[in-house]
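Why this split exists: single-chain examples teach little about how molecules sit against one another. For that reason, every record in the complexes split bundles all components of an assembly together and asks for one structure covering all of them. Below is a record exactly as it appears in the raw files.
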Amino acid sequence: MKLLISFLFLTQMAFAQMAKVPSEWIESSSSSEASRKSFGLNQGRGELTSLQEGYQNLIGHKSGMLEELSGDEEKKWYLQSIKTELGIEAKGGLGIMGAGGEAALELIWIRKKNGAKSFVSFNNEIDDQGTEAIQISSEMSPEALKAEIEPIVDLALKTSKIKKRSFLFKNLFNRALEFQKTIAELENAPSMGPWYAYKYQMELGVSVEGHITPFLEVGNALRLRMEWWKLKKKEVPLMLTQPTQNLSPNAKFVSAIAQDLSFIDQNYFQNGFQLNCMKVGVGTSVKGNLVIAKAQANAKGSIFFLRHEEDVLNQKLFPLPFDGYSLQSKDQSTIEVGRHQFRQAIRKSSNILSFFARHAPENEGDKKYELNVIEAEFELFMNGGIGLVTVEGNAGLTLFATRNVII
Amino acid sequence: MKYFFLLIPMALITACQPNGGENSIPVVGLNQNGKSQVQFVDPHFLGQKLTPLLTNISDKVSSSLDAHETLESQPWELSRVTVGLKLETEFEVIDDVLELENEGDIELRFQKR
C-alpha cells in the first residue's frame, strides 16, 4: 500500500505543473466580484504563487534564449528588438503561444546598447509596420490632404491590382475629410485627469475596384491606415473648467474614457514598469458617433490613451454630461455599459496587468536584451464584463506596461 | 497482488503522457480540430532547437541587409525590417524524443546602427 501511494505521488510530481490564471481573469464575472476574489481578499495565495512561478519561468526561459543569440556585433544591421507572445488556453493555463492560439500577453524585448539602457520609440514597437499610414491633422487644408494622399495612391497602383486612379483618389480624399472631422472633435476633448487621447488610427481596406471599406474584408487588394497624433504638450493638459454643454458626442466619449482610466489602482512598480498606455477598439453608430467595439475584428479603428508623466493639479472640474458607453458586437448590435461598470472593468484589467508587470524581472545590467513592454489583451463581454483574451480575434481593449521607452 | 494490476496501467499512462519534467515549458495553441490544446516541451530541448534557428535566421537577415546598399540618388532608405515566425505545436513522441516541427511565434525587428 505504501509503495502504491508513493508511486502515485511520484507520478503526479512527474507531470508538468502548468501555471493557471484565476478563472475570474478569463470569465465575464462581474468586475467587482473579480476584484475581490482575484486580488487579495478571498484568493488563495497558493494559486497566485504558482502563477507567479510559472510566469517567471516562462520569462526566464525566453530571456535566457535571447541572451544566447549572437553574431551581429560586427554588422551594420542588428537584431534591435524581439516580440514574443504568451497565450492562455480555455481552462486558464498560461504558456508560450503556438499556432492558432491568441496572444493574451505580448512581450517586447529591446537590445541594450553597450550594456546601457536603450530608449526606443514605443510606437515603433507596437504599430504594424507593414501597413501604409496617411498622417492627418485637423489643420490640414484640402490641398495638403491631397498632397498627403497622392503618394499612397501611386504606391497602391504600383504594388496592387488596383487600376482606377481617379476613383481611388476621390474615395480616399472623401474618407480623409470624414476622418478630419472626427479628429477635430478629439482635439477639442478636454482632459479630465492625467490620461488623454494621443493617437487615433482607422484601418482601411481597398478593393481592386478602388472602393474603400472600414473593415479588413477578405479580398481587399490593399490595406491602409489613417492616423492622427496629438502633439505632445509639455504643459499640464487642458483641464475642464468650463461648462460642457457644447461638447460633441465624440469629444465627451473620449474625455469620459480618459477620466475613467484614472480609476486604475497602481501605475508605478518597483522594477521600473509603468501602466501608462491603453488602446481601445472603436466603431461608429448609425448616427456616426464613436462606440466601443467588442472585438478588434469588428473595430473600425483604435484610440490610444496615454498617462501624462506628471500628476495633474487638482482643479475644479465641471461634471462631464456622459452616462455610459455603447458596446458594439460583430453583428452591429449594441448594449449600454454605464460609467461605473466601465470603471470596474478598467480596474479589473489594470489589476491583472499589474500582476504581470510587478513580477517581471528587474533590469539586469549584464543582459543584452531587456523586457521593456508588456501588452495585455482583453476581451469585452456583452454583459459589460472583461477578461484576458483566450480566443483569436476577440481582443477589444489593450493595456500596456512600459519601461525605458519613449512614447 | 491486487496492487500489481493497478501499478501496470498507471505505469502505461505515465509513459504515454507527452509531459516533461517540473520545469517543462507549456505551449498553448489549437489542434487540427480547432480545439485548445497544451503541449509540454523540455526547455533544454527547445533551447537546442529554437536558439540555433533564431541565430541562423538573424545572422542571414543581418548579412543580407548589410549587403544591400542605398544609392545616393534614392530619396528613401530602408530603416527597419521585421521578420515574423510562427510556432507549430504539433509534435509527436517518438521513442521518448520530442521533435519540434516548425519555428517559433516570434517577431524579429532589425535596425541599422
